[in-house]
Write a structure and sequence with these properties.
Number of domains of chain A: 2
Structural class of chain B: alpha/beta
Strand content of chain B: 25-35%
Order of helices and strands of chain B: EEEHEEHEHHHEHEHEEH
Oligomer: heterodimer
Radius of gyration of chain A: 29 Å
Number of helices of chain A: 16
CATH class of chain B: Alpha Beta
CATH topology of chain B: Rossmann fold
Number of strands of chain A: 13
CATH superfamily of chain B: P-loop containing nucleotide triphosphate hydrolases
Distance between the termini of chain B: 37 Å
Largest sheet of chain B: 6 strands, mixed
Strand order of the largest sheet of chain B: 6-7-8-3-9-10
Number of strands of chain B: 10
Helix content of chain A: 55-70%
Order of helices and strands of chain A: HHHEEHEEEHEHEHEEEHEEHEHHHHHHH
Shape of chain B: globular
Structural class of chain A: alpha+beta
Number of helices of chain B: 8
CATH architecture of chain B: 3-Layer(aba) Sandwich
Number of domains of chain B: 1
Chain lengths: 385, 241
Amino acid sequence: MFLLKLLIRNALRHKLRTFLTVLSVAVAVLAYCLLQTVIDAWYSGVRISSSTRLITRNAGSLILPLPMSYREKIRQVDGVKNVSFGVFFGGVYIDEKNFFPNFGGEVKTFLEIYPEYVLTPEDKEEFLKDKRSAIAGQKLANQFSWKKGDKIILKGTIYPGQWEFVIKGIYKGRDRNVDETRFFFHWDYINEQLKKMQSTRADHIGFYIVEITAPELAAVVSERIDSMFKNSIAQTHTETEKAFQLGFVSMSDSIIMALSAVSYIVIMIILAVVANTINMSTRERIGEYAVFKTLGFGGLKIGGLILGESLIITTVGSMLGIVLSFPAAEVFKEKVGTTIPVFYITGNTILEGLFISVIVGLLASIIPIYRGVRTPIVEGLRRIV
Amino acid sequence: MEVTPPIVEIIDISKSYRRGSQVVPVLKNITFFIPQGEFIALMGPSGSGKTTLLNIIAGIDRPDNGTIKVAGLDITALSESELADWRAEHVGFVFQFYNLIPVLNALENVELPLLLTGLSKKQRREHCEVALRVVGLADRMDHYPGELSGGQQQRVAIARAIVTDPTIIVADEPTGDLDRKSAEEIMELLERLNLESGKTIIMVTHDPRAAKKARTIRYLDKGVLNNDVLIEAAYKECLKT
């Protein structure tokens, strides 16, 4: 208790200097937390991937369609429990800047395979009954003030035309990792129109979602599905949902690397700032440390005093930065809207922030500790005049 | 006549400093003994080696050659950490510039050396109160060094030096930064500690008035202990410098 009191009082000797150092640590940790959260957001799709879900897409490219007829064949594959499909529709709501992901699909099986999208039983029933109906995530509905019963018109980009949907439900995520900015509707509605207008495009979908009976069957079932269509016009490529999501993430590898690099640069900057402060404090107090040594305090205790002060500054700064990162993340989330659908500071990021403060505190005090401990008492006492 | 056994034995001590390529001898083959309960003043001109000798006796500097025994223990054979433990237990320090920790109040400053003992918080407080009462500062326990006069700060430093009940008290120019009245009070306090509590005090001073309070004066000149210089002569020598 005595030593803690001494450490705090020592840290507060130069209040302005300590305040500015704490502030710089706080700002750096805040920046680190936000950058890390952006990186986390990139991986949110990967995080919620289920190990019992596979994605089957056209082996040529994701943008090439697959025949709808594959569905029954896939369903027959040993180890497959359920099959649904999806189509990225690419519709625009009023203006292109209002981007949100919208998908058509076989909604009954889709909701069975994705229990994380939660609808009330009534909404679910109404949604399943009406082919022109759609459901939207809570965040998306909030952004455009949509409510149940609203008519939404999407302008087709991949599938030209004005497509009208009726909102029959607002879904919520089972947990906060679930993207609540999506829009789902019955593919049948679009497909029926395609049959009339562009029959060659009808009865094709974007990808299959395959639910398997056990995670360990993923490789075998993938192999079975792909070999089944090996000699067909549209060959398939099946992979786990996680691998599929990681494929998307890898497209933005360089951005993630840049963000990570900036995070580490931020850490290096605070290391330099804290090291400078602790170094100045130690230099000023070298005489006092000599007095401590004279009284019988050994090198470990002197080192402890310097390290303790460094850790107090970095920990307080880090905690302040972590606390500030929550409102900052909220502001950030507001500003980016649905562009980054899942954006929250994870427990891991908080722990990393604290861990960084400990590491920075430790590294910043190495040279001052060496100086404080190694300076001979007689030389230290000479500095007190 | 009763012969008091020496508490400090200084045997053939030499010390030199390196200044660039030059080796400057500071102490040359010093040998003398300090009996238990002695109050000795080391005098001499600036650069004579008296502070170096005091530092060596107190275990904060090491001689190049020779042996120092305190209470029979050869402290020159101790490692750095053993020496630190030994200082905590056996030596009380009084410095010219008091060297109190500015962020600690009088009581906490006195408590510092006790942190290295196994005493409980309550016991530490009791010891500190006694030490501060001895130096006449029982009513200033909560005051920070900046709120005390020079004389009061030096008294706190003396309380810190005696609180562990050390074997020897070393004082380096304890009156050097004080006005005449405060200096007299400090010297009376040290004299009282020596006479009433039997504390062995080794003091370096330039101040002949301070030296007069000591029972013995040793005069150092150019690193050599001059055993022929008696109190009055030392007094005169110091008045000259």
